[in-house]
Predict the structure.
Amino acid sequence: MSAGAAPSPEAMGLIAWASRYLEENGVIKPRLNAELLLAHSTGRDRTELYAYPEMPVAADCREGFVTAVERRAAHEPLQYITGTKGFRYLELQVDPRALIPRPETEMLVERAVDVLRAAPGHPVVVDVGTGSGCIALSLARECPAAVVYATDISDDALALARDNARRLALGDVVSFRLGDLCDALDGELAGRIDLIVCNPPYIREGDFPSLPPEVREHEPYVSLIAGPEGSELHRRLMEQAPLWLAPSGLLLMEGGEDQVEGLAAVAAGLGYESVKIHPDLNGLPRIVEGVSPPHST
Ligand SMILES: C[S@@+](CC[C@H](N)C(=O)[O-])C[C@H]1O[C@@H](n2cnc3c(N)ncnc32)[C@H](O)[C@@H]1O
């Protein structure tokens, strides 16, 4: 559907036009999207737009706004258009090189922060599959005593994570490594890691066609799809983590709500101890953790 009549130059008129256009194109929460895009295009915040509804919007901002609304109407994710995503205490740069961090993952970080703050000295933590760097950079910011590594199999994702680290003045704090799961790490870390935290891809191949276009057509395939089962990466990591974890080291993973209980059973079968499941903000099972099996010592 085309953008239709030229929008009026006032903030509220622009929002009303964009909301209608986005709704006609099947965008969920069209008004909120319209407000956030206008805030982005004008460099103002949403409350300011409401405080001054008659505020005229300059022609160049209006042009940028119309382009942004057209991109959103074509189902490009809002955060790839604005280029940012808030995650815990950080404002991260996001673009199609990596997955947009999800709110559920903030709970994974919450648990990791608790574990690291309770650990003596300088605990070593690895964020496996770092994507934008949201987990590793949050841990570096919130747990300054921790020694933080981050791995990813995607060069593009690592480049974005490094950009974020530099922008947040954490470039010298987190060590990034390219490669498959923990194999990306230097061998001398084997048996010395206190915490492995991972939000791996966990969507089944067969579910890919039914994903929303925002996800299917814009986020990297490698960040979404694990394989036919959806839990392939979790399983491989559970198998290799004992080689890397220190005695009593913890493996902490996010998974799908329909996967986590099965993963907990696999972890227990592999000899992990104190296996626990944690719910997300909606009360759904989302995080599984287990202490490294004793034979890894
Ligand atoms: C679901 S995304 C999570 C990204 C980020 N940690 C977050 O929570 O937003 C999974 C990430 O794992 C990476 N990945 C996929 N397979 C991998 C592998 N075998 N080894 C390391 N990283 C992998 C992807 O490139 C992607 O960045």
